[in-house]
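Long-time lurker. I teach an intro course on protein structure, and each term I like to show students one example going from raw sequence to a predicted 3D structure in token notation. This year I'd like something fresh instead of my usual example. Would anyone be willing to generate the tokens for the chain below so I can use it in lecture? Attribution to the forum is fine with me.
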Amino acid sequence: MLDDARPVLAVTNIDFTTMLGDALTTSGTPILVIDDPTVRTLVGTHDDAPVTDTERTMPLRVDNTAYVIYTSGSTGQPKGVTITHTGIADLAHHQVQRFNVTTASRVLQFTSLSFDVSVAELWTTFSAGATLVVPDHQRFGVDLDLAEFISNQQPTHVYATPSALSALSAPSAPSVTHVIAAGEACPAQLVADWGQGHHLVNAYGP
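-- Reply from a regular --
Happy to contribute to a lecture. Here you go:
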């Protein structure tokens, strides 16, 4: 992915530099560690006003690339997919309406940022003015007790794979009103478990 993308800079934090350091060093990609004290001080000296077109290499348009996300590589080489600002806006607008995300909603940010579903969690939440509920990254994934976390943080919206949802019983998550299953085929048993009393959406294969 680094060879394909040829990034001019990797923005990360101290915790991830150890994990990514070898790969980034080998690729020759410069690293900016945003929570390094020197960097924090330097950032604080800059104007915090919005960036304008005069500061960009060209005017920003809605059909410009917002980011590139890579496929899993399950069919071979991971492939970069270009996403425009228009695409993000359309996705967020549709999902805010479809999933009834409001300023009172609490959306669980459960998905890895390398997985496309994470984009839906982030932009849908931000564009609706909802609250993003983020687990401690050190407990993220397999080390996270999802039932306990949901009980403590009371999210209303959960995006998750059927595998993760199957480990969680619907009665143990009374705060959850909307469940969006993605990333894998949605089995009939999951529909039976979560289809009653919840807004369940099968979003596999967007």
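Some talking points for your students: The CA atoms of residues 146 and 167 lie 8 Å apart. The chain is about 35% helix and 15% strand.
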